[in-house]
Structures are given as C-alpha cells and as structure tokens.
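Hey,
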Amino acid sequence: MLTPGLARTTFTTSRTLEFFTERELAMQLGVSRERWGLAILKELLDNALDACEQTDRPPVITVSEDQDTHTLSVQDNGPGLRVETLEKSLDYTVRVSDKAYYVSPSRGQLGNALKCLWALPYVLSGPRQQGRVDVATAGIRYEVRVSVDHIAQQPVLTLTPDPAPEVKSGTTVTIHWPQQASYAPWGRDATFYFSGAQGLVTHYALLNPHVTFAYVNGVQIEYPACDPAWRKWTPRAPTSPHWYSAMQFRALLSAFLNADRHSGVGARLVSTVLAEFDGFAGSAARRAVLSPLELRRATLEALVDEGGIAPFASS
C-alpha cells in the first residue's frame, strides 16, 4: 500500500522586503556595508542640489554630523520636498522619480534613493529593532519609522507628522544612525561610518562653485560659493529631442499617458508634450511638426495602436 505523498503548500512571498536586506542594499548603493554612510550622504547631497537648482535662490546646503546622538542631517534651501513624493516613496511596490523617462544629463534616474534611505537604518539596527529617519519641510517634521512584519514578510513604514515652525523653507533630512552600527566591525582598524563626510562635502564644493556648502561637526566649516553666477544644465531645462532613441521617446509618451489615465483628468495634448522639448516652446514650431501629421489638437490617446504608442509617433 502506497503512503500518501506530502501535499506541499505553495507560498507567496512579497518582494517588497528585498530592500531590507544587507545584500540588496549593497547592490542598490553600489558599495559594501562599511561605506553605506558615505553612499547615502552622496544621495542626499544629490537630492539637495537638485532641489536647490529648481529655485532662483543661491543654493545653500549644510551637512551636520553629531557623533553623540548618532545622527547625520542634510539641509537645503530648495522648494521643500513634496508630501506626495514622501508618501509615495514609502510604497516599495513602485518607484517614484520625475527623471526616470527623460533622457538628460541629470542624477536620480532610478528613483530609489529614498527607498534606500528608509531601509538603511533598519538593516543596520538588527531584525528586532526599528529604523528612524526625520524629514522636515514646510513647517512639518515627518518621522519615518521602519520595522518588518516577519510573518507577512513585508516592511511596515509609518509616517508621523509634528509641527516644526522653525522649518520655513527647504528640506532637512536626519538619519538616526543605530549606535551599534556606528563602527564597522573590523577590530582595531574600525572606522566611523561617516569618516570622510567632510571630504565628500569638500569635493561637492569644488565641483559646484555656485553653491554654498557647510559642514558641522562640533565646529562649522563653510565653503562659500566662489562663482554664484555659474550655470549648468539642470532638470528645469528642456530636454533635446535628439537625445532620445525611438524606443525611449515611445516610453516617455507611454509614461505621460499612463499618468494622465490615473489622474482622471484626461490625456494631455500632443502639443503640450512637444512644448517640453528644447526648440518647441513656440506654437509655430509645434505647428510645423504636428500639422502634417494632423495632430495639432490631438491628445496622446490618438497615438495609441494595439495597446501601445504607435511606432510612427516616435520616428
């Protein structure tokens, strides 16, 4: 008589937990554990610089390191992080970026810097503890707490707002670095995770002469802008149509249309999309391109064929 075989249970595991492992964070940040501090500082400096360059004010960025409280803060005088962006970044099933589909010489194409930021303190603090990051913007301080539901195999992120009237402009991000993670576990040659932070700030100051930087660690060291009028290409500038391949252009149009469908306000005009490109701010230039195609008053929906953007639209 045959013994009944084991009826195995098919399990479903959420992939949202992948960011909350040392292996995944090392891959996302591109460095091993002992370099995570500098890697995330670089990401925060990039975000701060991008934010500052969206305004007409001279950019000012301050990095503060406090070894007594085990915190690292990056403060900028940009327009302030949008709460919508902050909330969406806590969803690990999607990536949030305003640069992902644009072809341009800009940073932050992947949209995963904030996701690494939330996960990092938790991973370093151990599985039974919590990670914490504070984000202050527009008079509110948002405390992001991170833990993991080990039964459901999912991250649990909470966002708690508190008044912060002293924060009138810009954004301040503060990482509460776990104390037990403050030193790399390599014996006598152990180094503080943020050793080299001042050097990184110095390099940013040398390469961005239009920005005033400051580094605070007991004392404040300032790097005044030596050429405030210096200009470079920024995400505010229109992209060139010559930078796109046919596939990249179709992907951009598809992303626009998908966003419009989810917004519920209807698809934008093809002319509106074209106006975002360098050389097409004027209506005459757009008319010269769209009139022969009979698309002057058409929306992006007119470009859809068999579930996707028609190939002719990107040629």
